[in-house]
């Protein structure tokens, strides 16, 4: 497949690029600073663009089969970036007739797991309060997806870790895995790539966790 990856220099975005190349896809990595990517390959195109410029973004998605996005706030002060930049990506996809989109969101944005333990509900409440603005941004991003004409999937991980890829984790379409507290960025990226060909995840949030 011909894939475009936004947020390609972030922890998840870089893993998406690396794994997609390893799986034989042709990848366009959209970056502001190519020096930060740290991934190479014959099937890789590095596309330098300012994501505040919708016309510049169109060139990154034209003719592609699907788009994956690792865009999101890296701290509370960046809250708002996910929804704002995703609007630009959606506009470019609509203009170029590209339908498939997989984005990363966060577990607390979706429904609470069935039968969640008290300690997990309490922890979820505390984290949601601390990162209130970040999660509000992600909810608005998901609202933008729902209003769009794309075949979107929102992958919702819990706390992210910098650990190696395992390929072994739980997924719940429309929900979240019980007692799911962690996942490696590499496995979150793996789940996003796996969702591309899974029709059951279209227009759905997907909880992922160990």
Percent range of helical residues? 25-40%
Report the biggest beta sheet as strand number plus sense, adding barrel if it closes: 8 strands, mixed
Q: What is the CATH class designation?
A: Alpha Beta
Any idea what the CATH architecture is?
Answer: 3-Layer(aba) Sandwich
* Secondary-structure element series: EHEEHEHEHHEEEEHE
Q: How many structural domains are formed by the residues?
A: 1
What is the overall shape?
globular
Low-confidence stretches: none
Q: Could you name the CATH topology? A: Rossmann fold
What is the number of beta strands?
A: 10
Question: How are the SSEs placed, and which strands pair?
Answer:
Layout: E1 2-6, H1 11-22, E2 26-31, E3 44-48, H2 54-61, E4 66-69, H3 81-96, E5 100-104, H4 118-130, H5 132-147, E6 151-156, E7 159-161, E8 170-173, E9 182-184, H6 185-195, E10 204-209
Parallel strand pairs: 1-2, 1-4, 2-3, 4-5, 5-6, 6-10, 7-9
Antiparallel strand pairs: 8-10
Helix pairs in contact: 1-6, 2-3, 3-5
Account of the 3D structure:
This protein is α/β, with parallel strands linked by helices. It has a single domain (2-209), classed as Rossmann fold. Helix content is 36%, strand content 22%. The strands form two sheets. It has an eight-stranded mixed beta sheet, sandwiched between helices. Strands 7-9 form a two-stranded parallel ribbon. Helix 1 (11-22) packs across helix 6 and helix 2 crosses helix 3. The chain is globular. The model has no long low-confidence stretch (mean pLDDT 91).
